[in-house]
Design a protein that fits this description.
five-stranded antiparallel β-sheet
Length: about 575
């Protein structure tokens, strides 16, 4: 108001306004509808936060072994360093602020220098991705999870004492309490443990996250959708902590496999309540999603989809992986059948022959940058990887063996409109063309006849697409990776912690927890005729291509003799 009135006084001095008019104008209300910008609002908030984090990142510093209490902690830190170092060297957006000083030598301020940052996101596809997440999690999976945990004395954690004891659950909860802002602020204020415990067990009125049904007008008709919302309850902070841990988390990244442009990005169920990003930041064990990379490596080393292996349990140095399915036990089976049905035994035989070290190197070539332990169980996906990195890896299956890294920002302009950054795709040759054609022919079969076949029967998607389900021990992590010639998409679903999961595979496996989000998303994408994606798009194979060469069966399809959830778990990884 003072600045406005000063302007009026200046206008009087300059003869543009009379003193009487100025006095009258000064008595008027300001008339502003001021609204402070909130980074939690607007489209694709997880992606925008990831862009901010990447652009303001500093050059990573290698960790010292002496700073860590165990080898495991050190290797985790080293894996993070390896990932960040690779990003620093290969991704010009990572650390952009430090890498691109102004002409005067100072650094740009992301908030005050008027930079215009253009993202790769397609807001229609972003909306479809969020709708798919809300529809499946809010309408189906979350109610099932809450029903399963209701009445459990260890809920939301596992009820299997062999996996985690009751005392172990209490220890995890105690640690979670100590990480809250309430606990830290009370501790800093000098409160005793008894006072803090009393505060955590005193009921308060509070707003908590929930899924709600919202009806809106779309194209002249009423449409009801499930969306993130809040509800007011009376609850203790302790119970609210457990309630929030009950909410399932998710990550989704959808990308053009040729340009690397990310079209949709979902890092969780709701950014306002769950700000940790499970699309690019969070790393989880990938389970059977690792197998396509292993089988692709085999296709480069004289194996074909028709190469035969004995479907019996192998034992290597005391490690004996398990299968959930008893299909074709004791028979000779080929690699096409094994990957289509996500057979653990054949994967174990394959990595034993190819060697874990060679496979670890191949995973590096696929773009996996974290800590990779070169051991036999690597074939069952014991490595932790973020969704976005896996999407980059799977782009090689859409792009004739050429991997492209995800791109979030297409260009940056300064406050005068001058172009100061333009994205260039970073591509890496991962597979020979011959190996590419062989592995893609198998991965198409996963959707047509294997663990991904519900995309055909349940979601009525006829497009030519490949994919792979994945489920880790005890259903801790559920995955689906899907790809077409012009779109590759990854979906992860799980709990905040690995001990928070479904008790059974009926809900917890990749085909039931993650694949439906992909199916709903792709159905919406194909239903929008304004988008440049068609179910008529096809993978190109050379004329006369034979997956098994001139010899061997050329069968491209196998009937799947077991149920949806009996074949794709990485069960027994640590046995």
């Amino acid at each position: 108001i003072q600045r406005r009135n000063t302007v009026f006084d200046q206008m009087v001095k300059a003869g543009f306004l009379s003193a009487a008019d100025a006095d009258s104008l000064k008595n008027l209300p300001l008339g502003l509808d001021y609204h402070k910008v909130d980074h939690k609002e607007g489209g694709a908030p997880y992606m925008r936060e990831e862009i901010r984090r990447m652009m303001t990142a500093s050059k990573p510093v290698r960790p010292n072994r002496s700073d860590y209490a165990s080898d495991v902690a050190y290797h985790i830190a080293l894996g993070t360093y390896n990932t960040d170092s690779t990003m620093w060297e290969e991704n010009p957006l990572y650390g952009w602020i430090q890498k691109n000083p102004k002409p005067d030598g100072t650094y740009y301020n992301l908030y005050t220098d008027g930079l215009r940052i253009y993202t790769s996101i397609d807001m229609r596809m972003q909306r479809y991705a969020e709708e798919a997440v809300n529809e499946h999690l809010g309408g189906y999976l979350q109610p099932a999870f809450e029903a399963e945990k209701r009445g459990s004395r260890t809920g939301p954690y596992t009820s299997n004492p062999a996996e985690l004891s009751y005392n172990g659950v209490q220890k995890l909860i105690k640690n979670a309490v100590r990480q809250t802002a309430r606990y830290r602020s009370m501790k800093e204020a000098g409160a005793s443990e008894e006072e803090i415990d009393k505060a955590f067990h005193t009921p308060y009125s509070m707003d908590i996250f929930t899924y709600v049904r919202k009806t809106t007008k779309e194209n002249g008709r009423s449409v009801t959708r499930i969306v993130p919302g809040t509800k007011t309850v009376t609850m203790t902070p302790y119970d609210s902590l457990l309630y929030m841990k009950t909410i399932l988390r998710t990550g989704l990244v959808s990308m053009d496999p040729v340009t690397g442009l990310v079209k949709a990005y979902v890092g969780g169920p709701d950014f306002s309540h769950f700000q940790y990003d499970m699309a690019m930041r969070g790393k989880r064990q990938i389970g059977s999603v690792a197998k396509p990379m292993l089988y692709a490596m085999a296709m480069e080393q004289d194996f074909t989809p028709c190469s035969m292996f004995s479907n019996t349990q192998p034992v290597y140095g005391g490690w004996a992986p398990r299968n959930s399915s008893r299909a074709r036990v004791g028979q000779m089976v080929d690699l096409r059948w094994a990957l289509t049905n996500s057979n653990n035994w054949i994967s174990a035989r394959l990595i034993h022959e190819l060697t874990p070290g060679a496979f670890a190197n191949k995973m590096r070539l696929f773009g996996i940058t974290g800590y990779i332990e070169p051991v036999l169980p690597l074939c069952l996906g014991i490595v932790d990887v973020p969704v976005g990195q896996l999407v980059g890896a799977f782009s090689a299956f859409s792009n004739k063996g050429i991997r492209v890294d995800p791109i979030l920002v297409t260009r940056i302009e300064d406050n005068q409109g001058n172009l100061i950054y333009s994205a260039v795709p970073h591509r890496t040759e991962v597979l020979s063309e011959d190996a590419y054609y062989k592995i893609v022919s198998v991965l198409l079969n996963v959707v047509d006849s294997g663990t991904g076949r519900s995309l055909r029967s349940r979601y009525n998607i006829s497009a030519e697409m490949g994919g792979k389900t994945g489920t880790t021990n005890s259903n801790s992590d559920s995955w689906f990776m899907g790809f077409t010639p012009d779109l590759v998409t990854g979906v992860w679903v799980g709990g905040e912690e690995r001990y928070i999961h479904f008790n059974t595979m009926a809900y917890g496996q990749g085909a039931k927890a993650a694949l439906p989000i992909y199916g709903l998303y792709m159905k919406k994408v194909y239903g929008d005729k304004k988008l440049p994606y068609s179910q008529d798009s096809k993978f190109e194979f050379p004329d006369g291509f034979k997956p098994c060469g001139d010899n061997g069966s050329e069968s491209h399809s196998y009937s799947h003799s077991s149920d949806d959830y009996s074949v794709e778990t990485a069960s027994g990884v640590f046995d």
